[in-house]
Design brief:
Elements (H helix, E strand, L loop, with lengths): L7 E12 L6 E12 L3 E5 L6 H8 L7 E6 L2 E2 L5 H10 L1 E5 L10 H12 L3 H14 L15 H12 L6 E5 L7 H17 L3 E5 L11 E6 L2 E3 L2
Bound molecules: adenosine-5'-triphosphate and magnesium ion.
């Protein structure tokens, strides 16, 4: 039996997560529930320490909750073993981090191609996909430059192209504009907004930047490990 196709890309139900134990325990998430509909760009805001990164890591299969349930693209993450989680992160979820996370000795094109190599894509298919993605993020003319030879905004656009390489269903971005100036950050958010439409992807984006929240289909707010109703 195949899985059920639903209109919900992410379903989080009563998720709890603590770090440490006893008196020193930090309750990073305290009963978080929400859904992200397929095809939407959902922004996650909240003060520093409110649990945004913890939540994104759990949704992306990088960390596991102490309690509660997370479904991504119709899969209950608790039912996946290590290999299943690895396949999820490789094939279904694209990650974008504040610090870009590009490999310094590789060119922009080679960085975008890394996930395709990991999947064992055929080299011709890989080259074509890399070219298309670099064009999509407006960097067709910068394919040969290494990250150190690109501006911050350009590096983040390479990282977005890389996150899209394997056509993920879900894009998770953790403060993708946190290291960029306001104007460059806005351009990166507009790019994310555009790729969610053109690549038919769903996105969950943590951001501190209130001016960028306007571009989202909906905004979730975390406060002290709980979702605040708006
Ligand atoms: N590995 C860890 N060990 C112990 N405590 C942790 C760990 N990771 C996060 N925490 C704690 O959990 C809480 C939530 O942290 P988290 O990183 O999710 O917040 P955040 O909303 O992403 O903050 P920021 O906006 O600063 O990135 C914080 O109190 C933090 O100190
Ligand atoms: Mg964080």
């Amino acid at each position: 039996m195949g899985r059920t196709i639903t209109d919900t890309m992410v379903r989080v139900e009563d998720v709890h997560k603590s770090y440490g134990s006893g008196a020193a325990a930090v309750h990073a998430l305290r009963g978080v529930s929400f859904e992200v509909p397929r095809g939407e760009l959902v922004a996650l805001k909240g003060r520093s320490g409110s649990g945004k990164t913890t939540l994104l890591n759990i949704v992306g299969g990088l960390d596991t909750p102490d309690r509660g349930r997370v479904d991504v693209d119709g899969r209950d993450l608790a039912r996946l073993d290590e290999e299943g989680l690895l396949a999820l992160r490789r094939d279904r979820v694209g990650f974008v981090f504040q610090s870009f996370g590009l490999i310094p000795i590789l060119s922009a094109a080679e960085n975008v191609g890394v996930p395709l190599r990991l999947r064992g894509a055929d080299p011709r298919e890989r080259e074509e996909r890399v070219e298309l993605l670099l064009a999509l993020v407006g960097l067709a003319d910068h394919a040969a430059q290494r990250p150190g030879e690109l501006s911050g905004g350009q590096q983040q656009r390479v990282a977005i192209a890389r996150a899209l390489a394997n056509s993920p269903s879900l894009l998770i971005a953790d403060e993708p504009t946190g290291q960029l100036d306001a104007e460059t950050g806005h351009a990166v958010m507009e790019l994310l907004r555009a790729v969610v439409r053109s690549e038919n992807v769903t996105a969950l984006v943590a951001t501190h930047d209130t001016t960028l929240l306007d571009l989202a289909d909906r905004v979730l707010e975390l406060s002290d490990g709980q979702i605040v109703e708006h």
